[in-house]
Amino acid sequence: MTATQFTPNRAAVFEVSKNDLQSTRVIDVDISMPMAHNEVLLRVDKFALTANNISYGIAGDALGYWRFFPSNEPQHWGRLPVMGYAEVIKSKNDQILVGERVWGFMPMATHLLIVAGHVSQHGFSDVNPCREGLSPVYNHFDRVGANPFYREQNEDYDILLRGLFTTSWLVDDFMFDNQYFAAQQYLITSASSKTSIALAYCIKQRGERPAIGITSQANKAFVESLGCYDKVISYQQISELDPTVASILVDMAGGKTTLAAIHHHFGAQLTYSCRIGATHHNDIDISQAGAETYLPGATPTFFFAPTQLKKRSKDWGTTETMKQMGLALLGYIDFCKSNISTHHLHDLKQVNDVYQTVLAGTADASVGIVVNPNGMSK
User: Fold this and answer.
1) If pLDDT is split at 50, 70 and 90, which confidence band does 1 have?
2) At 283, which CATH number?
3) Which pTM does this prediction carry?
């Protein structure tokens, strides 16, 4: 049997404890109930697991990430959103056909039941009531057949990179849009993370400001080998940087120790402090939230990609904006294929071991994790 010839009765989903991200479980979910009008059942073919997904768990309720795919026990357990490809295996929406392949935000699961709405030639959205108030960007599923930039051979890299590349592309665009806040260089923490690498790539392509990558000593050689940073230093070398150079900080690490070290070293010469990731989650103290506003230099400000995307789409039009990002992504995927390999898992029960290494920050930065929760990919 193929996936389009039957509807399963049960799905499996990977969940993490909201209060202890190290605690995980894989549970069965009953999906045998009759489907309602406009409901669509997706079979998850593959998804990527990156440090970015850990950031979703850390932001959790604060930024609404737990609301995308609520657990049956939402007080204790959450489902981390990931980027992936899926196939429509049952549809109660006349405009969405069984067998369609889609790309989008989904849980770490074998299947996903959505309520389809806003259907167009290019895609559709999940309009489940739990999504109310969340960014529509994350509710949207792309129809693969309508994406002019889709390449089957790029699928693994696409799900590893597209979401974070979009964020990085928009960060670069935002800084350009604001004349770099009069800064002469970028400082990028967690320089080995895929989001940081994508940003450094975009900055290099634009060619207007140098980027200094800040990483662990263990990852320094890998980051230097990429060639997209103008300089690479370890966290222990922050004090060696010239504090008189006006700088933009893009903080992917999120740890209070590194953030404070950079702010105190550069002081007023830190003209913009952009917070994005949380790879150093063990150095984050939620009880001290807001304390960073007292740091010298620019006040740390979280970057919300949909805001810049909305602005740029208004400036250029949605079609042109998507075209520019799509072309840039193809170039970035080609760049990454020579620097980052992929490793596949074929069972949700195999995910925890790799998840723990990503959570601990010990995962190999040169390897991208792709999960096929239903076994071998099509």
Assistant:
1) very low
2) 3.40.50.720
3) 0.83
Total structural domains in the chain?
2
156 part of a folded domain: no
User: Quick check: helix, strand or coil at residue 185?
Assistant: strand
Place of tokens 């239903």: 374
Residue 245 CA to residue 134 CA, distance in Å, equals 39
d(CA 48, CA 343): 10
Burial of 369 (0-12, 13-18, 19+ CB in 10 A): buried
**254, 281 Cβ separation under 8 angstroms:** yes
Q: Is there a single domain that holds both residue 143 and residue 181?
A: no
CA–CA separation, 378 vs 374, rounded Å? Answer: 10
Instruction: Identify the domain containing residue 174 by its residue range.
Output: 164-306
Q: What is the pLDDT of residues 40-76, one digit of tens each?
A: 999 999 999 988 888 788 777 777 889 999 999 999 9
For residue 11, being part of any structural domain is answered with yes
Please state the rounded mean pLDDT for residues 248-269. Answer: 92
